[in-house]
Amino acid sequence: MLTGRRSLMHTLRKKGGLSGYTSRSESDYDAFGAAHGCNSVSAGLGMAIARDCKGSWERVVTIISNESTMAGQSYEAMSNAGYLDSNMIVILNDSRNSLHPKLDEGSKTSINALSSTLSKLQSSKSFRRLREAAKGVTKKIGMGMHELAAKVDEYARGMLGPSGSTLFEELGLYYIGPVDGHNIEDLISVLQEVASLDSMGPVLVHVITKGNLVADVNQKNEVSTTQPEVPVNFHPRSYTDYLVEALVMETEEDKDIVTVHAGSVMEPSLRLLQEKFPDNFFDVGMAEQHAVTFSAGLSCGGLKPFCIIPSALLQRTYSQVVHDVDQQKLPVRFAISNAGLAGGNGPVQSGAFDITFMSCLPNMVVMAPSNEGELVDMVATAAHYDDGPICFRYPSGAVDRTDNFIRSGLPLEIGRGTIVAEGKDVAFLAYGTMVQNCLKARSLLSELGIEVTVANARFCKPLDIKLLRQLCENHSFLITVEEGSVGGFGSHVAQFIALDGRLDGTVKWRPLTLPDNYVEQASLKEQVALAGLSGHHIAATALSLLGRKREALLLMR
């Protein structure tokens, strides 16, 4: 709102509106695109060094939350910042959130009159000049006195500061804090002093805030609005709900099953799983690389880990997936959440690439359910699969079901798909939830007298070769459909049918994937249409393949 976008706030996360994250293409005030956390110090340091190389003078300020400091990149960046000693300011926004409730009950960094005074003293020009002068004297004395004095100064200030401040000093950042983030006068005073310092090197300002203040204000100022009536017992269920209940059933049967969760937010149903099996559940926060290798270690120790990671965050730990899991053929079970398009969260949280980068690994079994029932079956499949790593993806959002019954999962035969509906003119081979869109397309085409077969692949790797050959033998037209990038399921199908000689004859094949660009934020329905994966788009593709292009155009009106 302070950067000229106040009048557009009503468009937040909507099609053609504001993105909800800093975006270089959206505003000159957005210096760097951030959203996944932990990257601000690295980007800021890069900007500071670029400034120094060009001989210009701008102040570089980066903000990072205490939740983001769970990720190793933030410490790598701070260590490098301390070594390079370039002028920059890091503001640690400490909302006092913790992964561990027991730690929350213990002592926290206190803010009182003394700490406020010390923070002002630490950031003052006179204090900094005194310290710099002392450093100069010890350098002249020599004989290691400079290093000794630096250590004495560091640990003395560590004793005055809160626990943990010495860590930042060891990394090479000058620590100031804690500062009360809700005492605007003190906060401005400290920031002004820090901004006025010359040749200061990297400085970390530790600001204590309360993250739930907005929620508290909203509850106090709650207003009555007219909402459509919803049945009292109706609670929209998500794919994660079904995943959790399936994991509960499997864990009750096999106590070697453990769950590792990585990500910035944990859904309520996952918290219930954590409460039910506290010794079998590990939440590591935004430490995806650790989560994968930790899961590999659990597997080496004889346990059966389910590693739950959002698709967009799995990208950050690909090296660990390759070297620590797949190369060693360890039976780690990856539950890839938030797969596919992300609606209002746009390309930042979009899970577009996991099919491609997981299916190219030699030892990885890659699955995707067409609905919540198959998700339950795939949890059971993964629980019983011990021959190597296995993964399955599932989308975010609510499931279109009114009953709450969940049956026990039935392990699927590895690499076996199924035919959902049969026809003779065109075959749709769908992967994951795109099966539902293919069924919609089949309904549209049936009104035009076209009979369509819809097959549910279930597995991207290994492919159901028998099913593929059957579809090619019985149909002249084959269309593959997936909610993933180029290079995924369709590419594996193309590789097989080309090598099998199926494309040498009468079979015509067309792939439908996500486009080779980032799909901007909009509603999920709008995004699917933009990507050309709606029922109407799939039906129009079939009509074009059949040579009925005029009808295809009419269908898209």
Automatic annotation (TrEMBL):
Residues of the signal peptide: none
GO biological process, one term: terpenoid biosynthetic process
Keywords: Isoprene biosynthesis, Magnesium, Metal-binding, Thiamine biosynthesis, Thiamine pyrophosphate, Transferase
Molecular function via GO: 1-deoxy-D-xylulose-5-phosphate synthase activity; metal ion binding
Annotated EC: 2.2.1.7
Transketolase-like pyrimidine-binding domain span: 237-402
CDD domains registered for this protein in UniProt: TPP_PYR_DXS_TK_like (cd07033)
Necessary cofactors: Mg(2+); thiamine diphosphate
Main enzyme class: transferase
Stored PANTHER family: 1-D-DEOXYXYLULOSE 5-PHOSPHATE SYNTHASE-RELATED (PTHR43322), 1-DEOXY-D-XYLULOSE-5-PHOSPHATE SYNTHASE (PTHR43322:SF3)
Family: Belongs to the transketolase family. DXPS subfamily.
Protein name as catalogued: 1-deoxy-D-xylulose-5-phosphate synthase
Organism this protein belongs to: Kalanchoe fedtschenkoi (Lavender scallops)
Source organism phylogeny: Eukaryota, Viridiplantae, Streptophyta, Embryophyta, Tracheophyta
